[in-house]
Amino acid sequence: MFDVLPDRLPWFVGGPILGLLIVGLFAIANQPLGASGAYVHTMGLLTRRTEVVVWRVWYFVGLLVGGLVVTQVLRSGAEMRSGYDALRDVFPLWATVGLVFAGATLLGFGAAKAGGCTSGHGMCGTAQRSPASLTVTATFMSTAIATTFVLHLLTGGDL
Amino acid sequence: MRLNLIGLLFGSLFGGVLAASNLHEYDTIHAMLRLQEFDVFWFMGSAIAVSAPLLWWLERRGLVTPLGGALTLSRSRPERHHVVGGALFGIGWAVAGTCPAPALVMISSGAALGLVALAGIFLGLWVHGRATNSDTHVGDGEHRTTSV
User: Fold this and answer.
1) Residue A77 belongs to what domain range?
2) Does residue A93 share a domain with residue A40?
3) How far is A94 from chain B (nearest CA, A)?
4) Torsion of CA A34, A39, A45, A46, to 10 degrees
């Protein structure tokens, strides 16, 4: 709608803002800014479980709202971008859908097992200097980079 | 009630920063993990560089938070499930090119594949919940025992 944002916010602006958000949520509510917990409690609400932490559901909604405001309102064009161009150049649509679904299932399971994801362990956990979070982060960074290079080799260098 | 508003506010701001940094796009994550572009590493690193000293200082001052009692940072010891979970998470992250928070932003951006990622993440969490008969895993991530 409006064109007030650059195509991509530089990391030295976005990163420190995110750092302040992490500190802010700890300072106000003594809670980490982790996203997989929001999924767990949103799923809990949908399946009518009893022990749902309601504010985590609002946090889940907020992520959607924030994304909506930036991509649809603050950016001009707002063209439908999946951002999956690199994957779509190599695979047909059905295979892309399959890969995304399989990958997402695996990362959901892994986040539940590890007790957090990129935000909960990767950023909030390491910012607390938690040995468990540092372990999780080092592990997922290693397997993610290794997997990416395996995919790169398997696709003959296309991906 | 106030906590719900805080949740909505921080979710919106976090989602907005992710969207403005294009972290909801597969291509951004893929270029990072291919080690072609280091912006996302710097992004994460600078977020930690800003938050870690501030959290350390606030904890040392004995901050009492308005909505969550005394500030308590958690520092658990690594266990087997951290390594196994982290390893699986990393493989999935590389294949899907997204993780829980950016997947929601991807949906907001109008990309249908975000819905596929969302369904997959829910399935993975559900399977784990069924397998362990509990859907909250205590850890240093966001799954805390203290439910406020």
Assistant:
1) 1-81
2) no
3) 11
4) 170
